[in-house]
Specification:
This protein has nine helices and 15 strands. It is of the alpha/beta class. The model has no long low-confidence stretch (mean pLDDT 93).
Length: 343
């Protein structure tokens, strides 16, 4: 039985705690939050848990095997570092840290102490996201041309991170999962309307090898809640709509075929040498057996500890996302030009 403590019981932490309490082979024994009023409310709901305002009390408790961190992003690194140094397995919400150097340090610590380090890229545990990946990886869509995503909402406005660092990790983790590779370069443009130097809306452009491109639009200053991603291939196209009430994945048998023609006017005449023929076939709405992704994610963390396995969203995965965000940040600060992601 894995004994787990959670640090941070705020807006998202409540959902995380609810799911960790329901996992198999684990027991949540303690929760920690700097706000005593938060702990008082949690104590009413879960009176058998231990409560603390100080994370060091959790790290110093030898009875605790693992720690889940759901605090503001600027504290992720220090808390995860202290937990790993204390010999705890660590689950940390996204982003893993605010710099790639910090991510590398956490990865090295986890390897040194032989502990599981997992990042909360929740959408990798979403059955609809997995279904789209099957279409992409199987080749059924043909050659992948481009992808684009929109993650928009009216609020919740953050003060610790901008819209890019808050929302884009979701889309980036999904795109990397679908394509199985990281971008070569990235550009980003953002605008801050509500708070100085905190972008409310950001547009990112990613370039991959082979000519594949991806566009990401994130905003917390939009009238509608939108969570939609589209993959355009040479044979078929897929739309994944996370807020759809019924079918979240739709496959469109649509494409444009370039057909060569036989001409007699000579090789110097280009007009009429080919035709672009539109093809519009059926739309498929595959059945997806949906389970709450957060529940799957929490159980995966415990299973990886018990079975000594590497998580799907491990430290390296968290590092990849932060590297891309760092390059996008450099691009945004420099006016939006392309920036190499690099190693």
């Amino acid at each position: 039985m894995i004994r787990l403590a959670q640090i941070g019981i705020g807006y998202w932490g409540k959902n995380l705690l609810r799911n960790f309490l329901a996992t198999n082979d684990a027991q949540v024994t303690a929760v920690c939050d700097r706000d005593p009023s938060v702990l008082e409310k949690i104590a009413v709901q879960y009176p058998l848990l231990q409560f603390s305002e100080h994370a060091q009390e959790v790290f110093g408790d030898d009875r605790i095997d693992a720690v889940a961190i759901a605090t503001p992003s600027e504290s992720h690194f220090e808390l995860a570092k202290a937990a790993l140094a204390a010999g705890k397995h660590v689950f940390v919400e996204k982003p893993m840290a605010n710099s790639s150097a910090a991510c590398k340090e956490l990865i090295a610590l986890a390897e040194k102490h032989k502990r599981v380090l997992m990042v909360g890229h929740t959408f990798l545990y979403n059955a609809a996201v997995l279904k789209v990946r099957e279409f992409v990886q199987s080749g059924e869509l043909g050659e992948i041309y481009y992808l684009y995503s929109q993650r928009l909402n009216f609020g919740r406005v953050r003060q610790d991170v901008d819209a890019m660092w808050n929302f884009a990790p979701h889309d980036l983790s999904i795109i990397l999962y679908w394509l199985g590779k990281i971008p070569l370069r990235v550009s980003a443009r953002g605008s801050a309307y509500l708070q100085k130097n905190i972008a409310d809306v950001v547009f990112l452009q990613l370039e991959f090898d082979g000519g594949v491109t991806a566009s990401i639009h994130v905003s917390w200053l939009d009238p509608n809640k939108v969570r939609r991603m589209t993959v355009v291939g040479s044979a078929k196209m897929v739309v994944y709509d996370d807020v759809a009430s019924d079918y979240k994945v739709r496959v469109y048998d649509r494409g444009i075929t370039r057909q060569n023609l036989s001409v007699s006017l000579g090789e110097f005449d280009s007009f009429g040498n080919f035709q672009l023929i539109q093809r519009a076939g059926d739309m498929l709405m595959p059945k997806v057996d949906f389970v709450e992704p957060l529940k799957v994610q929490c159980q995966h963390f415990i299973d990886c500890i018990v079975k000594e396995q590497k998580p799907l969203s491990d430290g390296e995965n968290g590092l990849q996302i932060v590297r891309i965000l760092e390059a996008a940040q450099r691009s945004m600060e420099a006016g939006g030009g392309m920036v190499e992601v690099g190693e």
